[in-house]
Amino acid sequence: MQRPLIILGTGGNALDLLDLVESRPTPWRVAGFLDDARPEGAVVAGLPVLGRLAEARRFAEDPEMGFVNAIGSEASHRERLRIVAGTGLDPARFATLVHAGARVSSRAVLGPGTCIHAGASVAGQVVVGAHVAIGPGAIVGHDAVIEDGAVLAPGCLVSGFVRLGRSCYVGAGSALRQRVVIGERALVGLGAVVLRDVPPGATVVGNPARTLRTGA
Questions:
Q1: Prediction pTM value
Q2: Can you list the domains of the chain with their CATH numbers?
């Protein structure tokens, strides 16, 4: 019997999560969404908006209910962990989801609430924290460490031994050289080629990557 799952947010990431859940037989069925930007009763992709984010604990009274966070674009990634904490939910209530078309090493470690989308690859000895989003086609090399709340956009390349800080964002099509460190809450822009460490909160763009903005 499948357990109900609520998705936090209703944007494009939420639609990707719907596809992820439907990609293989899982213990989950999506019951609907919680979102502050749409009214209760609105319908998204055929499923209802059940209420606001602050109502998560009410739905958690059902011991079978699971949750997953879909909020975390280049504009909101720094708020990803705050949104999760604001629900007041036990970390164990968040589902870890892997698309049928993703490849994840048996020697990788995935934290609660992490989602790995179609075509992504996660190599051996990778450690992935909680509430991490690894987008379609993203590649994570061996021995990388991805801290809580990080977002890897589609098609990015994270080489071996890279470390991604909490709530950072790695843009679509970007490439990170081996052993670089991306600081907490930093943003790597679309298609950037990162050859050196990126300080916390900084935004880097270009090939080779240069600093566009400092700490945020």
A1: 0.93
A2: 3-93 (3.40.50.20), 97-208 (2.160.10.10)
> In whole angstroms, how far apart are CA 12 and each of 43, 44, 100, 116, 179?
14, 11, 19, 15, 31
* The predicted structure's pLDDT at residue 78: 85
Instruction: Dihedral sign for Cα 17, 18, 23, 28, please.
Output: positive
Spatial contact of 68 and 131, defined as CB atoms under 8 Å apart: no
Q: How confident is the model at residue 216 (pLDDT cuts 50, 70, 90)?
A: low
Distance between CA 80 and CA 64 in Å, rounded? 24
Spatial separation of the C-alpha atoms in residues 174 and 209, rounded to whole Å: 10
Whether the pLDDT of residue 97 is over 90: the answer is yes
